[in-house]
Task: structure prediction
Amino acid sequence: MTSAYLSIGSNLDPRSEYLSLAIEDLKAAGFVIKRMSGVYETQAWGKEDEPDYLNCCVHGETLLGPFDLLKLVKDIEVQVGRRSREHWGTREVDIDILLYGDEKILSPKLTIPHRDLKKRRFVLVPLLDVTHGASVLIDGEDPKDILENLNDSSRVKIYDHSRDSKQEKT
Result:
């Protein structure tokens, strides 16, 4: 089994349901989740006029190779309901492979560590939740040090799940 870290996000309602469906589909496909971060409500990144995201990170283990894992997460995105739109546009669900073992991959289809990982507060904060106490490095750097020196000041706050039940009642 190989250790992998995934980022999961959604900015279309029902956001939390899309996250839950993606996580359940990962488990059903044999991705063994060891730790999951809190869920964070985050400002859109890249195309900032979009609705806020819900984001989380999971650490798990898989028997799949990195390209097979990529195919799995893309299949799950479609299964959960993702439709193709503009780059960095709204999305039902987005699943990115952040880290895969100690692998470094640079190909047209897959870059590991994820190409924008060291630039995104909305990914680094949940990643630190699941790497807390573990010796995980990103290109030889501690994720905590990367976050402390990050130029990205976008809003990342823990998500209040009670809002979901209030919205369902109205």
